[in-house]
Amino acid sequence: MFKPELWQSHNEYRTLVTKIGRRLSRNNHKYSFDSYEEEYQKLLNLNLDPLAQFIPPFYSNGGRPATHQAQILRSLILFVLLFNETKAHTSLTLWVRKVLPESISLTVLIGCASTDELPPLGSYYDFMNRFWLAPRNSYSRSSLLPAGKNGKKPKKEIGPDGKLIEPQDPSSITTRDIVNSIQDGKPASENPEAALQKIFSILAVFPSLRLGLLDSHNLTVSGDGTAVVSHTSPYGRHLPTCGQFCPYRGTCDRHYSDPDAGWGWDSDKKTWYFGHTLYMLCTRNNTLKIDLPLLMKFTDAKRHDCKNFLYTIDDFGRNTLGLSPKNICLDSAHDNIPTYELLERWDMNALIDINGRTKASENAPKDITFNKEGHPICRAGHEMCSWGNDPISTNFCIFINFMLY
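Given the sequence above, the corresponding structure tokens read:
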């Protein structure tokens, strides 16, 4: 049950931090926030009040009221900001049970006046479970899964540009299938992180719009995926009851610390990795020379970026509450006709590198060829230049005007 009166407002938080912070630093220098000045400024400017209107539907109408919800969210944010600066590292358990109780400075930074007010570890998992919209019948953290679930490093073809070539599997979902689903108004994916994406929009994207960091009328968005390595064994862990001489040791079920992880290809480091793909949509503020994230989505490590973009741009339209890009910038992994058609239908300018693996492209008219740099060549043998696209024309193509000579 959620009660708005139990939500710690931003003004209450700022008063607590400044009042107690001054007193602590005056009485004992080790309690000052000097060591966490950057995190202090970020949390002091992060207004969580808009969530008080967004999150009530995620709670039941009865039962015990949930307390310290704003403090838990601030604690999770601070936990991530200090990954490499505390002994907890990536362990939420150590953060809650060891780091916070031993530091009154960090305790105050999350919005608690004393260590006695710190929420327990179970409250963190209860808070996170509310906003992760995966089916309730999915496996739990203690589930056992078959041995060999992740298999070996997949044998997939790597192109001369170092990119993973999308396999031609007739049974797999194609970019055409995804685009057709989007155009029919159906969600392209289940998207269990939809609530988190909306929370990010409310707390980060919309304030950036109000501050003038984003131009909603001329928004240019870039999309790309990055490898996220999972520091866990892809082969799982045997149960204590399965000893070394167990006759079924090679086939018995095992525990996987990260059961969603899989094998993928890191085209930047030219190596296989075990983990996930983080696909992000960002925009560039040229005045401040900073890149601002707009939406993040964790996907399968083996999924090609051309599909990741379609899933992500569909989530962007559903979870950013009306924000629409004007220009889309993508690399050659996204060079396919369904993506062009979708962006054309949405009246978005597609700025996509041509796939340079071949001298010709199936995405272009038959009488157009490409040189080794990937530039289209007209029938007269000259490089073509882009004059944009014609939204009135029914015959869609990337380059519609030839160089005048």
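Residues 393-405 have pLDDT under 50 and may be disordered. Try to locate this feature in the token string yourself.
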